[in-house]
Write a structure and sequence with these properties.
The complex is a heterodimer of chains A (460) and B (294). Chain A is α+β, with helices and mostly antiparallel strands. Helix content of chain A is 48%, strand content 10%. The longest helix of chain A is centred in the middle third of the chain and has 22 residues. Chain B contains 16 helices and 2 strands. In chain B, a hairpin with a 6-residue loop joins β1 and β2. Classes of the chains: A alpha+beta (460), B mainly alpha (294). Chains A and B meet through α3, α5 and α9 of A and α15 and α16 of B.
Chain lengths: 460, 294
């Protein structure tokens, strides 16, 4: 047996927990059937153009292109804020990345785990089933009979992107064009931090396992478990899941779409307020839908962790505006968190008028349908530099990723035209309320809520 | 002295020139073919530097410069003129033989009408003069190699010689007898040294190149990185050419080289964003792979 290079070393507790939850994959069928299903749902990839050598990877993703692909993914939720030419460039660049050839991918696995995939796995599909931003996903069956998804990172990409992210002057110039209304330096700092973190799959494995354990037993939310012994810096293996894609869900009956929307909403805010973690990559491709509101969440490469000090002001803002209905206190909490320059020559009402759109779903307890128009209005307001309030509004760095709640989640809910009493659901989740359940899904959560471990301090 | 038009649409029109020149289902492999070095080195991120470097060197021949300055619509539509050159080169490289020959014939017809007297030297010139055509050809071939070696993906051993040899046919197409055209890097170097006494930096050359190095009206995402492209071009010039223009450049450190490559990568990304460019490049790649398998 050759030495496994870069094998993921789980903390003891995590490894023990992983054994305990193995029975918990709720939507799983048998491994061979899952393996086949994953093949049937294979993404159409340009294998004919596959990158065959590490030099091909350099030509395709080196010299800023990988960074721009990443930027494009982050920006795909904020389309309205981008010039059309920039949007087109970033999206074409994403299209320009073909998969790795089977040989190139196998080489990465061998370097990382010490053995070729054919030796490591019982079954290994040399053709990828899906693209990932800095790698691709293969299906396999482990020697102990589990169907798994193996994400393999492009060779050299980590070194290249780290070097490209060091060219802050060029990033600054690019972002001035790409996102002129944003705090460019804050965005760069956040982009660097998130991307560098994403390049080390061991971090993703820890985050995914954390959320897998937290949601273990949840009636509608599922996060596949990590297979630690088959993971490393550039390879991450997790239990395989299949399901419908977001685009398919759009043709489902409205009641199904509402349930899917409710699960997305619960996942985002429970993760934020209870796990203190937010998945900064709310890409529709990262969700698999199973009907009845059941959703499997994939890809935890961009998880941002928050401290209590980060979250308190957010809760205060929601509480002061939506529960207490106090514009003056709302303003004070905005200033406290750094969202608003203190002492700006604006009335409290002006401030509420400007920012209330972000809270529109939860200001009143009533049933609301999220529309595409609402999602666009949020985005437009976000990028609205003409409002008198805009010049005093700021986005503190630790919250940059959080904008995706507004710009990503609301966009998806809008596409679903999801209907719910969002305020009532929010009250269930808000740590300062923790109201009893108001929907069937909320009631179904009760046994899980009662059984789950305390999550006082869950930062990785 | 007439004013230059601005450079809006430079990337867009260069991209369209490439896209239109790559046939979908070609009847033949053209004059180079998918196994050629010319195909393999196309689409490198150093291409904009190669193009600018070639223009700067070509402009140092007073008769070549006078021909462009007095006859073409260079000042009125510099972007159109550059796009036309890009289209011609793409046609010669990737087009079917008939398309390449047709493009070459058109250029030769235009050249027939371009005659005059250079105001600087008082010498008569004709654009169809093989000596001038050879100069333009040599500057281009040398620049494609130099820019790539300095900022792009370095060539494999032997590729530079092979490329110079392959390109002889391009010179022939435009009207230079093959026996006059350098067919190795050594021969190309010798030729470039031999020509130097005939060169001069005329006011027309200086003005044209000052414009190219700092073109007004560039699209915003390109304008942000043009300083890097400009510096890369000046660094890539042979010392004698830079001296004739009177430009000085800082020494190229490894870190600065990487920054320039990153800026070129951004420019290439903008190019890929233009309609059809990605598909055109993919067609080229697929044909090269099919040829490699055969």
């Amino acid at each position: 047996m050759r030495r496994r290079v870069g094998r993921l070393r789980f903390e003891r507790g995590l490894a023990a927990a992983q054994l305990a939850v193995r029975g918990g994959l709720r939507y799983a069928t048998s491994a061979p059937r899952l393996f086949v299903a994953a093949g049937e749902n294979r993404e159409r990839l340009r294998n004919d153009l596959a990158m065959q050598t590490a030099d091909d990877v350099t030509a395709t993703l080196g010299t800023m292109k990988g960074v721009m692909v990443k930027l494009g993914q982050m920006a795909s939720y904020v389309d309205d804020g981008l010039a059309p030419s920039v949007r087109r460039t970033l999206s074409r660049l994403q299209d320009s990345v073909p998969p790795m050839s089977p040989e190139l991918a196998a080489g990465v696995i061998e370097e990382e785990l010490g053995q070729a995939p054919d030796d490591l796995f019982e079954r290994w599909d040399p053709e990828p089933i899906a693209a990932a931003s800095i790698g691709q996903v293969h299906r396999a069956i482990t020697r102990d009979g589990r169907a798994v998804a193996v994400k393999v990172q492009y060779p050299r990409i980590a070194e290249m992107m780290a070097a490209d992210l060091d060219n802050v002057s060029l990033l600054r110039r690019m972002l001035r064009v790409t996102a002129p209304s944003q705090d460019v330096d804050g965005l760069i700092a956040e982009l660097r931090e998130r991307v560098l973190e994403e390049l080390d799959y061991r971090k993703e494995a820890v985050n995914q396992q954390l959320l897998h354990e937290y949601y273990s037993g949840h009636p509608t939310i599922s996060v596949p478990a990590i297979v630690g012994e088959l993971s490393g810096r550039r390879v991450v293996t997790s239990e395989l899941a299949t399901g419908a894609r977001f685009a398919d869900v759009l043709s489902w009956p409205q009641a199904e779409r509402d349930l899917a929307g409710e699960t997305l909403y619960r996942f985002v805010f429970r993760s934020l307020y209870e796990v203190h973690a937010f998945n900064g990559d709310p890409h529709p491709g990262n969700y698999l839908f199973h009907g009845g509101g059941k959703v499997t969440f994939l890809d935890f490469g961009m998880v941002k962790h928050f401290t209590d000090a980060d979250l308190l002001p957010l809760m205060d803002m929601a509480r002061t505006l939506c529960v207490d209905g106090s514009p003056a206190e709302f303003r004070a909490s905005l200033e406290e968190a750094g969202f608003l320059v203190p002492g700006a020559p604006l009335s409290d009402d002006q401030i509420v008028d400007h920012l209330a759109v972000f809270y529109q779903l939860v200001r009143d307890s009533k049933t609301v349908t999220v529309t595409g128009d609402y999602a666009s209005a949020v985005v437009r307001r976000f990028f609205d530099v003409r409002s008198p309030v805009a010049q005093y509004a700021r986005i503190p760095r630790s919250y940059v990723v959080l904008q995706r709640i507004n710009l990503g989640l609301f966009g998806l809910l809008g596409e679903l035209r999801a209907t719910a009493n969002w305020r009532a659901i929010a009250e269930e989740i808000w740590p300062f309320m923790q109201a009893p359940p108001t929907t069937p899904m909320g009631s179904a959560e009760l046994p899980w809520l009662a059984s789950r471990p305390a999550v006082a301090s869950t930062r990785a | 002295m007439s004013e230059y038009a601005d450079a809006a649409g430079l990337v867009e029109r260069s991209a369209a020139a490439l896209v239109n020149a790559i046939p979908d289902r070609p009847a033949d492999e053209g004059f180079f073919g998918p196994g050629s070095v010319a195909w393999r080195i196309s689409g490198d991120l150093s291409a904009p530097v190669a193009g600018l470097r070639a223009l700067m060197i070509q402009a140092l021949h007073p008769l070549a410069m006078a021909g462009v300055d007095q006859h073409s619509d260079w000042r009125a539509d510099p972007v159109g003129r550059l796009a036309a050159t890009s289209a011609y080169l793409a046609n010669i490289t990737f087009g079917e033989r008939v398309a390449a020959q047709r493009a070459a014939a058109r250029v030769r017809r235009i050249h027939e009408r371009v005659t005059g007297v250079d105001p600087e030297t008082g010498q008569p010139y004709a654009a169809s003069d093989p000596a001038l055509l050879l100069w333009v050809h040599a500057a281009l071939v040398d620049s494609n190699i130099a820019a790539r070696q300095m900022f792009g993906t370095p060539l494999q051993p032997g590729d530079a010689d092979r490329y110079v040899e392959e390109m002889v046919v391009a010179a022939e197409l435009v009207g230079v007898p093959a026996e006059l055209v350098p067919d190795s890097q050594a021969a190309l170097g010798k030729y470039l040294t031999w020509v130097q006494p005939q060169l001069a930096c005329t006011p027309a050359a200086r003005e044209s190149m000052a414009y190219l190095l700092d073109p007004p009206g560039l699209d915003v995402e390109v304008a942000e990185i043009w300083q890097d492209i400009r510096e890369a071009t000046l660094i890539s010039l042979p010392g004698w050419a830079r001296a004739m223009y009177g430009y000085t450049v800082p020494e190229l450190t490894a870190a600065r080289r990487e920054e320039i490559r990153q800026a070129l990568g951004v420019l290439d990304a903008v190019f890929i964003g233009e309609p059809g460019v990605l598909e055109a490049r993919q067609r080229i790649t697929l044909r090269m792979r099919a040829a490699a398998r055969a």
